[in-house]
Amino acid sequence: MSAVVQLTQQLLSYKTITPKEEGIFDHIGTFLGDFEVLRADHNDVSNVFFYKRFGNPNQTPLHFCFAGHVDVVPVEEGWKHDPFKGVLEENFLYGRGAQDMKGGIAAFACAVRDVCALLTVSNPPPLILSILLTSDEEGEARFGTRHMLEVLQQQELLPTFALVAEPTSVKVLGDSVKIGRRGSIGGKIIVQGIPGHVAYPRTCLNPIHLIADKLNLVANANLDKADSLFEASRLVITSIKSESGASNVTPKTLEILFNVRHSPRVTLEDISNFLDVVLEKVPYSVTLQQNSLPFLSSQDCVLVEHIQEAIAKVLQRTPSLNTRGGTSDARFFAACGVEVVEFGLVNDRIHSVDECVHIHDLNNLYQVFVELLHLMIKEAHVKQASSF
């Protein structure tokens, strides 16, 4: 059994349901060895930063960081194996978090440890290699990676580049790399009516009737057009609620909850203006909240180029560069000005019963990360040479 499979199996044994950490950081720290450690726990959320410096301390280093989360979603009934035992069966490793994302953490922890061991006996450039981990990605994500990055910024340890090992692959390992994410805006519409007896319609104003013929214009509305990197920004209704307390009384209000996953071309103001036009004659109010901002790394960014090179060399595959899916902690790196991409295991079983990963994928992901680290070290050498 390879080191990455063994480490994944060990990490799966920790019952780290959001936001519990359960001592897994100490296990990873022991595995890494002589890395410097910075803890920044906050509001019951555990965060850790492992890092190692190389080269001339008087020169500005290239800082490459792997990032991820140890927390997992709760477990449903119906598993054929204990979800926190890391059972290996027919070359598949079963456990909650196998794909999302303890397998990715094990792969980059092994890669960083092994590459750092080689760097200590060579002539390294000014360089920092690091690992940032949180226990609050599957939860509210308020005191996890975002807080850790604030601490790193204060201590002048903010990375230059970061790779978040979310399970981005779709059908086979290496077919997809995320170079950005759509933003998320949540909204609530309140339609105002006048309650009254249904037998006397002239004395009441039914908010359900007021908006009924408008719903088809609001639901699933495209707010922009899709392009090569971003899907169309759509308004998706997630809840409609109105209660009067009796079947013969019209309600006072109607509440509609919705969410918009959007490209950088759509803003809060755009959504507000869209609703004003569509609901022009409807007595309504709306509140909007920006849950996360969209971001996009340049396709000719050094990190984007090198992850493609590493995947091509190890897997003989050209990944699609895209922004599909929900939100991730990569958005916090982007907000700090850090060039960030996401790449990891296949995501076909995440959050599901019998979540598992093929050991072949674990070993190949490790190899991709090793190759990527070598490419980033070469980049640090180039940066060093250009500074003279």
Summary keywords:
single chain; 6-stranded mixed sheet; 20 strands; alpha+beta; 10 helices; 5-stranded antiparallel sheet; 388 residues
Helix and strand topology:
Elements: H1 3-12, H2 24-32, E1 36-39, E2 47-54, E3 62-69, E4 87-89, E5 92-94, H3 98-119, E6 127-134, H4 145-154, E7 161-164, E8 176-178, E9 180-181, E10 183-192, E11 196-197, H5 207-212, H6 215-218, E12 221-222, E13 234-241, E14 249-250, E15 253-262, H7 268-278, E16 284-292, E17 295-296, H8 302-315, E18 320-322, H9 330-335, E19 339-342, E20 356-358, H10 359-386
Would you kindly provide a written description of the structure presented here, covering whatever features stand out?
The chain is of the alpha+beta class and 388 residues long. It has ten helices and 20 strands. The strands form six sheets. It has a six-stranded mixed β-sheet, sandwiched between helices. A five-stranded antiparallel β-sheet has the order 12-13-15-10-16. The radius of gyration is 24 Å and the shape is elongated. The relative contact order is 0.19.
Number of helices: 10
Q: Regions with pLDDT < 50 over 5+ consecutive residues?
A: none
Work out the number of β strands.
20
Q: Structural class given helices, strands, pairing?
A: alpha+beta
- Please give the alpha-carbon distance between the first and last residues: 46 Å
Shape: elongated
The radius of gyration is 24 Å
Q: Roughly what fraction of the amino acids lie in strands?
A: 25-35%
Q: In this structure, how is the largest beta sheet organized?
A: 6 strands, mixed
Strand order of the largest sheet: 1-2-6-3-7-19
Element-by-element helix/strand order? HHEEEEEHEHEEEEEHHEEEEHEEHEHEEH
Q: What number is the mean pLDDT? A: 96
* Helix coverage percent: 25-40%
